[in-house]
Design goal:
Length: about 650
């Protein structure tokens, strides 16, 4: 079966995805992760190794390996690895060639078309060099698209945005930052104005901030390491890896302790989130300015935007979400893992090109210097005017995008140690002794988690819960009483009823309790929301109190008794229009009506999350069903 292949060669990581029809899925590139490090090792036999294989080979001969070579594109100075010099295009082509080989091995056939992605701010010279990569990698059918375009394509396909939406893409990758204003039109992403960016700013720079904090606490011990010495180079490589992990941990923890070895022995330092955010704020400031420039070039104001889309692994840093919300006051949307969205969108564009033109024409890409830029006059300005005259009426329509990601959480593959509901309404459990063994990404997926639940018809809300649906007068103007379970072979599935359309969550009441309402997005453009309802996960209830605090009840009986087993003290009281968004990247976020972030759990999962599970002791877990990995847990003691 023909498929489209999308390849995103990033500065620090490489991601790839396969698309069949309207469905796209990540291609596993790494040993223990979907993505692979963008590293190339030049062997003594002349072969170029890439990814995790290159990382392992570099442990013995670090001088033959190169990181961050994408940043060197356009620099005529050769990159010397071992006995010879390489152009950056040669190294990128080696990565692309290995990705295509892995796609062929996984599918048994060549891709029908390949799309490579590049930063939107690259000029004609670097673009011309980058287009040579396809030829060097022996690709017959390929084209190049910008990373914001690919990211927007994925978001549009996920139904996370309304039709004809105006969107800003905030793409903070490992080594570059891009932003662009996109209009969705006929399920296509159309660039408005000029793409903007900050070259040389990305996650690696944030990693350097962590290393600088470590260096200061150790009185310059890190600075004194000489990278040319093989032993010290290996120490530096391990320390950089530790710095990345510390950076990611600071997204969910207020402080983190780094324990590591230098050449003089073991060391331990303590880093805090406030200090880290204080230091990275100057690095993020130019990215905010770039978003403003992109809006200006499109002739639009921030209030015209329906949402800001996050892309790139570094966009998960909580300060990014905070600064975007503060500066622009628009919903900030993240669907799936930000590291993956560009590759997924590129794969969709590749399949679309194959379907429209066939393999003989899909590779033709216009000269970037001659390609016309879409005009912002006409349709775009008409759309902006329409937004300006109907913004109040569309307030709830645009806000629906914030929780459309709930539709992604369609499969609740409850792992070992997790409550399993068997469809009988009895709340039966299965043995869960092996949960701890699935928590590491290096372990093989458990057999019970690898098979997704078969789709089953959604039940009416009055019968799906095992308890009567809330009274009709508490559900004025809505057609979805709950997120209820469907049943198949012991799997409990999290689905929106009816169907799996995007939904919005609002605060309301049920039997005297403050609860949450999930409603299909199709109702949001016609009726106002009065905030009645709740989220149910299996037999458990997630409740938002009048104070803004979030409470978890394990069963209807616990809800009736007011006995919560877990709580998040958000401190968002006094904001009656506040609403909750549960992101697939693992964050619970409470927003004010104007889109400001009032509170976030900041779980910062390292990997995609496709299941929300409730453990027998009442803890929430965020898991990836296919890998069996537990990415985050509330860790609260149940009552």
């Amino acid at each position: 079966m023909a498929y489209g292949l999308g390849i995103d060669v990033g500065t620090t990581f490489t991601a790839a995805a396969l698309a069949y029809d309207t469905h796209a899925e990540m291609l596993t590139l790494g040993d223990t992760a979907l993505v692979a490090p963008s590293v190339v090792f030049a062997g003594r036999d002349g072969r170029l190794l890439t990814g995790d294989v290159a990382v392992r080979a570099a442990e013995a001969e670090p001088g033959r390996a190169i990181h961050e070579f994408k940043r060197r594109l356009g620099d005529p100075t050769p990159i010397v690895l071992g006995e010879r010099g390489y152009a950056p295009t040669e190294l990128i082509a080696a990565v692309v060639r290995d990705v295509v080989d892995k796609a062929r091995a996984a599918t048994g056939e060549q891709p029908g078309a390949v799309v490579l992605t590049c930063p939107a701010i690259w000029g004609p010279y670097r673009l011309e060099q980058f287009t040579e990569v396809a030829t060097m990698a022996s690709l017959d059918v390929s084209r190049v698209v910008t990373e914001p375009e690919a990211a927007a394509t994925f978001y549009l396909s996920s139904n996370a945005t309304p039709p004809d939406a105006l969107l800003a893409v905030y793409d903070l990758g490992g080594g570059t930052f891009d932003t662009a204003v996109i209009r969705s039109h006929d399920d296509r992403a159309e660039l408005l104005g000029n793409a903007e960016g900050v070259d040389g700013t990305g996650g690696m720079d944030l990693d350097q901030v962590v290393l600088a904090m470590v260096d200061e606490q150790l009185d310059g011990a890190v600075s004194r390491l000489v990278g040319s010495d093989p032993a010290e180079a290996a120490v530096l490589a391990r320390l950089r890896t530790d710095a990345v992990r510390a950076k990611e941990s600071l997204s969910s923890e207020s402080a983190v302790v780094m324990a590591f070895f230098l050449t003089d022995g073991p060391h331990e330092v303590r880093l805090t989130r406030p200090e880290f955010e204080h230091r990275i704020a100057p690095l993020l400031a130019p990215t905010i300015d770039a978003v403003r420039r992109a809006l200006d070039s499109a002739g639009l104001e921030a209030t015209d935007l329906d949402a800001i889309l996050l892309s790139g692994g570094s966009s998960r840093v909580p300060l990014v979400l905070t600064r975007l919300s503060e500066e622009f006051g628009r919903p900030v949307l993240s669907v799936g893992h930000p590291k993956h969205v560009v590759a997924l969108g590129a794969a969709m564009l590749a399949y679309r090109a194959f379907q429209e033109h066939g393999s003989s024409a899909a590779c033709t890409d216009p000269d970037p210097a001659e390609a016309p830029r879409p005009s912002v006059r006409g349709p775009a300005w008409q759309h902006a005017a329409r937004l300006a005259t109907s913004r109040a009426g569309r307030f709830r329509v645009t806000r629906r995008t914030l929780v459309a990601s709930l539709s992604v959480l369609t499969v609740l593959g409850l792992m070992a140690g997790v409550v399993w509901w068997d469809g009988s309404g009895t709340g039966g459990q299965r043995d869960g002794a092996s949960l701890a063994s699935t928590a590491s990404p290096t372990n093989a997926p458990p057999s019970t988690a690898s098979a997704p639940a078969a789709s089953a018809p959604a039940r009416p809300a009055s019968t799906a819960s095992g308890t009567p649906a809330p009274a009709a007068d508490n559900l004025t103007g809505q057609t979805c009483a709950a997120i209820g379970p469907t049943w198949s072979a012991g799997y409990g599935s999290l689905t929106s009823y009816p169907g799996s359309s995007p939904a919005e969550v609002r605060r309301g009441s049920h039997e005297g309790h403050e609860v949450l309402l999930v409603r299909p997005s199709s109702q949001l453009d016609r009726r106002s929301i009065r905030g009645n309802g709740y989220i149910r996960i299996g037999h458990a209830y997630l409740v938002m109190e009048a104070s803004g605090d979030l409470l978890l009840y394990r069963s209807p009986q616990h809800l009736a008794a007011g006995s919560a087993c877990a709580a998040w003290r958000t401190g968002t009281g006094g904001n009656p229009g506040a609403y909750l968004r549960f992101q697939p990247d693992g964050n619970l976020v409470v927003y004010a009506p104007d889109g400001r972030v009032l509170w976030a759990s900041r779980t910062c999962c390292d990997g995609s999350v496709d299941a929300l599970a409730v453990r027998a002791d009442g803890n929430l877990l965020l898991v990836n069903q296919s890998s069996g990995r537990v990415h985050w847990t509330t860790g609260t003691a149940a009552g």
